Each structure stands twice: as structure tokens, then as C-alpha cells.
Amino acid sequence: MLNIAEGSGRVTNKDRRSFMINARGSTFECVAIVDFLFSQNEVSDAFHQEIKSGYEEISKMLYAMIKNLE
């Protein structure tokens, strides 16, 4: 979220695109954390699937934003 906010304030599309790429990378980091928590039985299967589904949607939106800035 912070990468998107900071990138929105950038003047050039190249700079904005860079922040969107970082935001997408952060999304994958969050998925790794949720996967780890699930493997340690710290979160339920339902929560795990719900969160991963949300992150997948976010990743797709960021990918579209990145492509639009090329």
C-alpha cells in the first residue's frame, strides 16, 4: 500500500512503474508469510485460502497497472 501511495506521487511513468513493481513484490512477500503461518498451523485453511485469493487479485491489478505504465 505504501509503495502505491509513494509511486502515485512520482512525476514520470517510469518512476510510478518502479513503485508498482515493488508493491507487487511486497504482495508476494505477504503470501510467503501467510503460507508459513499456515504451515505452522497458526491460521486456518479457510483464512489461508481467503487471504491468498485476495493477494492474487491485488497482484493481478498491480500487473495491469504496471503494463499500463509501459
Could you describe the 3D structure shown?
With 70 residues, the chain is mostly helical. The protein contains 3 helices and no strands. It has helices spanning 2-8, 13-39, 45-68. Helix 1 (2-8) runs antiparallel to helix 2 and helix 2 (13-39) runs antiparallel to helix 3 (45-68). The model has no long low-confidence stretch (mean pLDDT 91).
Distance between the termini: 21 Å
The number of distinct β-strands equals 0
Oligomeric category = single chain
User: H/E order of the elements?
Assistant: HHH
Cα-based radius of gyration, to the nearest Å: 14 Å
Unreliable stretches (pLDDT < 50, length at least 5) are none
Largest sheet: none
Structural class: mainly alpha
What does the overall shape look like?
elongated
Helix content: over 70%
- Report the sheet-strand fraction: under 5%
User: How many helical stretches?
Assistant: 3
Mean pLDDT equals: 91
